Amino acid sequence: MPAEVAMPELGTEILLKMDCAPLSTSEGFSREIVLTRANSVYTYQRGEKETTRYEFWKLEVTGPGSFAIVGEYIEGTPNLKTLEFTGAIDGDELRGEGKRGPRNCTVSS
Known about the structure:
Blueprint: E1 13-20, E2 29-38, E3 41-46, E4 53-63, E5 66-75, E6 81-90, E7 93-100, E8 103-108
Antiparallel strand pairs: 1-2, 1-8, 2-3, 3-4, 4-5, 5-6, 6-7, 7-8
């Protein structure tokens, strides 16, 4: 019987830096996001879904050395857009990549 692999312990908050590439005529940008743990899931929310400045992230540890983030946001236009990242966990460091709407982005702690 294989030994059980311990899941990483990331604490009660995770500070992530998101760096997004330029898109068309829009410049790239960086933003810091603080996710808070509740019941082994980390979340971040800014604003309310019915407004023009809303963002929601959910991070889950998907394995001993991996994570996934899914979410949605509204910025500028009333259309709801998705975000999705996957990545690796090394100790208390997270590094991943994915999309925030149409932009290619990276996240790191």
